[in-house]
Amino acid sequence: MSNVVPLLRPRPAPDAAARATAMVVSDLVTIAEQLHDIGARAAALGRPRTEAERTVQMVLDAVTSIERALDTITDGGDYTPF
């Protein structure tokens, strides 16, 4: 009889759906960050003011759409895949 108690137990592998969801969330966060950078660069192009404002607003609208998608996928930001 052994009196050794294992302290570490192997963690179960996350299921494929959780992995796929985590990958989509990661991709959307990356795209949102890139769009923020693109908006800043678009504002600095030296185009006429109204054109620059419209361009930046459209980019910000895209960011808002991605953030809404993230809220939907993560149930309002409370997402723990593993």
What level of helicity do the residues show? Answer: 55-70%
Strand portion, in percent? under 5%
What does the average pLDDT come to? Answer: 85
Order of helices and strands: HH
Query: What is the alpha-carbon Rg in Å?
Result: 21 Å
Q: Please state the structural category.
A: mainly alpha
Supply the number of helical segments. Answer: 2
Number of strands: 0
Low-confidence region ranges: none
Q: What overall geometry do the principal axes of the alpha carbons give?
A: elongated
The main sheet comes to:
none
Please give the alpha-carbon distance between the first and last residues.
35 Å
Describe the protein.
With 82 residues, the protein is an all-alpha fold. It has a domain at 23-72. It contains two helices and no strands. It has helices at residues 16-43, 49-73. Helix 1 (16-43) runs antiparallel to helix 2. The longest helix is centred in the middle third of the chain and has 28 residues, at 16-43. The protein is elongated and about 80 Å long. The relative contact order is 0.15. The model has no long low-confidence stretch (mean pLDDT 85). It comes from Methylobacterium ajmalii. This is Histidine kinase.
